[in-house]
Amino acid sequence: MGRVLLDMAMTLDGFVAGPNDEDGGLHDWFFSPAGVEAVDESVRNTGAILVGRRTYDLGDRMNGFAHSPYRVEHFVLTHDLPERIARGEMKFTFVTEGIESAVERAKVAAGDRNVAVGGGASIAGQCLEAGLVDEIQVHLVPVVLGEGIRLFDLPGVGKIELEKTRVIDAPGVTHLMYRIVKGD
């Protein structure tokens, strides 16, 4: 079975979005020629994606799912089912039973490939708090937003020990990969 990979772009000051969900240049690298290798590797290794309802709604409003290179099942953790399903080629499964259920269902769908937790700081925090994440990949973008939604605003999580496994410097982004050191 694959790993659960928290995979997010983040500014130097720790934000994954501006105060009104604006991108702030966080994903420019993803759509540039310099990002092709990292994106191709991620698409090959990802078997399912876990997002929150806020990320789902935002992607639907901006028609972002129609342009995604990830043609895998997306699991959306939500309290309420949407009135309509987003346009695009991927399948959406809405999970109302909690984060553990969402991750388990995504792992089954992903098979030997990874589950990417890439859809929002809240989902990332819930997965970290529940001890469900195996690795963290941060795409560190040289931008300072000053305000917005922080990735690691995790008051209930406590200390997480990490082991650096890879650093790739690329134009406009530095890709940092860490393995979470789990106790025996």
The shape, in one word, is globular
The level of helicity is 10-25%
Query: From the helix content, strand content and strand pairing, which structural class follows?
Result: alpha/beta
Taking strands numbered 1, 2, ... along the chain, how are they ordered across the largest sheet? Answer: 5-4-3-6-1-7-10-9
- According to CATH, the fold-level topology is Dihydrofolate Reductase, subunit A
- On the 0-100 scale, what is the average pLDDT? 88
Number of helices: 4
Instruction: List SSEs in N-to-C order.
Output: EEHEHEEHEHEEEE
Q: At CATH's second level, what is the architecture?
A: 3-Layer(aba) Sandwich
Number of strands: 10
Q: Main beta sheet: strand number and arrangement?
A: 8 strands, mixed
Computed Rg: 15 Å
